[in-house]
Design goal:
The protein contains four helices and no strands. The protein is mainly alpha-helical and about 100 residues long. Helix 3 (about 45-60) crosses helix 4 (about 65-99). It is elongated and about 75 Å long.
Length: about 100
């Protein structure tokens, strides 16, 4: 997949970002941002939801300071919700079986 990403980036610099240096890190970040903004995918599919989680994970690994702590808090809240839901279902199953 890195070859596809490099090919896409090279084509993007040739077609849309004419005059920018493809080796400049800021220009590369701008090209990635532009690519994300141009992607038009339905957000209601499983694949798109998983892609969103992957983008969140990638973004949170690059984040620092308050953004990192916010990402950690979101993950902790999601895990806490899953644990509470699993506990509730498990206790309902145990209660049903014990009757």
């Amino acid at each position: 997949m890195p070859d596809d990403d490099q090919t896409r980036r090279r084509r993007q610099f040739d077609d849309e970002l004419i005059g920018l240096d493809p080796d400049d890190p800021e220009a590369q970040e701008f090209a990635d941002h532009l690519h994300k903004m141009q992607k038009a995918e339905p957000a209601f599919t499983v694949e798109s939801s998983l892609r969103g989680v992957a983008e969140f994970a990638e973004g949170s690994t690059r984040a620092t300071g308050l953004r990192w702590w916010t990402a950690v808090a979101i993950v902790v809240l999601i895990l806490l919700g899953v644990i509470v839901a699993a506990w509730d279902q498990l206790s309902a199953v145990v209660e049903h079986v014990s009757r």
